[in-house]
Fold this sequence. Notes:
Layout lengths: L11 E3 L4 E3 L1 H18 L8 E5 L4 H12 L3 E8 L3 H17 L4 E5 H4 L5 H8 L3 H19 L4 E3 L4 H13 L3 H6 L3 E2 L7 E3 L7 H10 L16 H15 L3 H12 L13 E2 L6 E2 L5 H8 L8
Parallel strand pairs: 3-4, 3-6, 4-5, 6-8
Antiparallel strand pairs: 1-2, 7-8, 9-10
The structure holds adenosine monophosphate (AMP), FE2/S2 (inorganic) cluster and zinc ion (ZN).
Amino acid sequence: MRCAICKKKAEVYLPHHNLALCREDFINFFLKRVKKAIDDFNMFEKEDRILLAVSGGKDSLSLWHALLKLGYNAIGLFIDLGIDKFSKLAREVVEKFSKKNKTNLITVKLENEFGGNTLPQIVERTKAIPCKVCGKIKRYYFDRIASKENFDVIATGHNLDDESAFLLGNVLNWNIEYLAKQLPALPEEDGFKKKVKPLIYLTEREIAIYAFFNEIYYNELNCPFSKKAKSHFYKESLHQMELSFKGLRIKFFKGFLRNQKIFGKVEKNYSLSPCKICGYPTSKEICGVCKIKINLGLIEREK
Ligand code: AMP
Ligand code: FES
Ligand code: ZN
């Protein structure tokens, strides 16, 4: 097969675009897709300071690589959850990437924030649901660091497979409130920083190929807490459908983006105010992270 652009020997075939490409033109294709998402949704400009949440997985590390190549000012933020080998390897690959690419990295070690407790210890001691409490803590530090260090925007490595699976789940369950918020760029609002997902036009497979071509080493271990959750099932179902209907996922997701405003009129039935302890926006008196700290006996309820 020949590259559709330069006619050299193709190394990649992208079925849903019906496109064969050589290595160089695939990398250009990938970068163009990232840039298109950034521009389509006014995610950020060249002069903006971007805080990129990096997990050590292929998505966020490939995104970091692409943003730097495109000339954006992206600084990594890694939350070290202290989950055995999984977090150790994640930390190693993230540090290696930042050194190799001479770019700055901020690391938050959960143990230092939670009186010596790692995520598994927090889960054990507070009887919390691992992924739920993990998501809550990560979102908290993304916002806290972005505000404290004056970043313009927070970027994450969510891709087309993630977003279309999330969309399918939200439609099947008619989670109107989530549908109203499932935007590739969420504006700064209610004391939360702007959040963006520049990989929404790229599939997991395309990202894995980009990582391979650019020798990006990433953590291939799965988090030991990740179970066969519903989201995996939705992702797998869409993969199966894609085999019969090429391009279904991107059509499904892009169609949603075109019609997303339909869901945009949902009234919030809660209001946010600063947490009495730390100031983080919350619908209760005390935010979720301060509650964890209270549960662990690290801070007192009244202050
Ligand atoms: P996940 O929910 O694990 O698929 O992660 C989605 C996105 O959240 C990743 O692409 C990263 O941008 C971010 N993320 C996940 N885990 C971490 C972490 N430990 N530290 C920083 N960012 C993370
Ligand atoms: Fe958060 Fe697995 S990465 S629970
Ligand atoms: Zn708080």
